[in-house]
Amino acid sequence: MRLRQLIALERMRQQRQWLEKNHPLRQLFWECTLRCNLSCRHCGSDCRKAPVVPDMPLEHFLKVLDDVATMTQPARVLVNTVGGEPLVRPDIVECGREITKRGFGWGFVTNGVLLTPSMLRDVLDAGLRTVAVSLDGLETEHNWLRGGSYDGAMAAISLLAAHHGDVLWDVITCVNQRNISTLPQLKQHLIAAGVRKWRIFTIFPQGRAKLHPELFLTPEQYVSVMDFIVATRREGQINLSYSCEGFLGRYEGEVRNHIYRCDAGTMTASVLANGDISGCMSIRAHYAQGNIYRDRFSDVWQHRFEAMRDRRWLKRDACKDCKAWDWCVGGPFHLRGDDGEMLHCNYLSSLQACD
Q1: Nearest-CA neighbor of 332 among 259, 275, 282, 258?
Q2: Residue 210 CB coordination number (10 Å)
Q3: What is the dihedral of CA 133, 137, 143, 145, to 10 degrees?
Q4: HSE on the CB side for 199, CA within 13 Å?
Q5: pLDDT by residue (tens digit) across 168-199?
Q6: Is residue 251 within 8 Å of 241, Cβ to Cβ?
Q7: pLDDT tens for residues 295-305?
Q8: pTM metric for this prediction
Q9: H or E stretch at 161
Q10: Which of 97, 136, 262, 310 is exposed most, by the fewest CB atoms within 10 A?
């Protein structure tokens, strides 16, 4: 690693220690539904059109927000309504309006199919601040992964590109073995469509994705994706960044706008559809710290996230003697099982050999 990277890593290590101690909530995910109008091969939540868990009533979540407002300024917290597909909720506009009315920022992630011109007007009027649209490749590759929603996603992107307001938006792409070779063409397609911000994710073996090994990249393919991101960022035509899939060795500071840090339990929390209180929404293992139907969210946030704030218990197995521990601290929790076992480590499997 270069000296510049080592200095940045040390600064992030110190910042993480401060966050573990003070844990200022800045992002709250609300799994407002487990229903979805699609059935994607890689869905980590295994969402369906008729899920076992019903939608959480809005008034139940608003009690959580009123409680959050007693411990921090609402304007400092972004509430992301996620699913499932949040736009399948018939009251999604009311949800956004009530979140905004209480002073919180509001955003959502969507597959784009239901983001019609009238829906966009309504959610913007309700205070929408951020939106991310999923587009997983060119038409053939996207439709293979998501089941025919390419036209809807592109229509949503066109709507957002034509909007000149202050809403922040980007496109999310999940890279897999079917679309990796088309990334250069997809990049040009997005630039031509007016996309300025693009995020790349890789798929991990959770939920429905476990049934499809063709979704997972080989170590060599993973490294090629990192190289693609670095090259694209240097070109400067589109702001591309990689997701929070763990520490990346020599790629730190090169593929994101920040140095790696897992914010689950320190700055990020979630309320799941059944009321469970957890960290980041990407965590599919059972790391619930409480439940809104029996606990106050503020009490849980202040006193029950030690497993995510003091991670020394993860320093075992492959992490025990890892030279990256001080910066990685066991990696992201969504790549851990219920008892903390490591499900996957991108650094160990592919990037360590590049250092």
Answers
A1: 282
A2: 15
A3: -90
A4: 15
A5: 999 999 999 999 999 999 999 999 999 999 99
A6: no
A7: 999 999 999 99
A8: 0.93
A9: helix 150-162
A10: 310
